[in-house]
Amino acid sequence: MPGSKRPWITNGSPTKSVGFMMPVGKKLAGSVSIISYTDSLQLGVQMDKSIGTDPKEILEIYYDCLDEMLGKEWRDFEKGKKTD
């Protein structure tokens, strides 16, 4: 579901980004958050040390899955600028 297309105003200033994380505890070893806001998509990953200590490893798994679905061209995307 798309998020807000316009930034929220807080104390008279536009909010540049928003995010959330689910708590991680004894029964939940990790969490993933995905949020869209002002034409951007943010992915958050949180995990217990018993799962791993390098979040880049988890992100690479997501990147590989996105590569399969979208092709590697999505990695060249810059906000407001699309490649050919």
Describe the 3D structure:
The chain is flat, with a radius of gyration of 16 Å. It has one helix spanning 55-70, and strands spanning 9-10, 13-14, 30-37, 40-47. It has one domain (9-76). The model has no long low-confidence stretch (mean pLDDT 80). The strands form two sheets. It has a two-stranded antiparallel ribbon. The protein has a two-stranded antiparallel sheet with strand order 3-4. The chain contains one helix and four strands. With 84 residues, the protein is of the alpha+beta class. A hairpin with a 2-residue loop joins strand 3 and strand 4 (40-47).
What are the defining features of this structure?
1 helix; 84 residues; 4 strands; single chain; two-stranded antiparallel ribbon; two-stranded antiparallel sheet
List strands and helices in order, with pairings.
Elements: E1 9-10, E2 13-14, E3 30-37, E4 40-47, H1 55-70
Antiparallel strand pairs: 1-2, 3-4
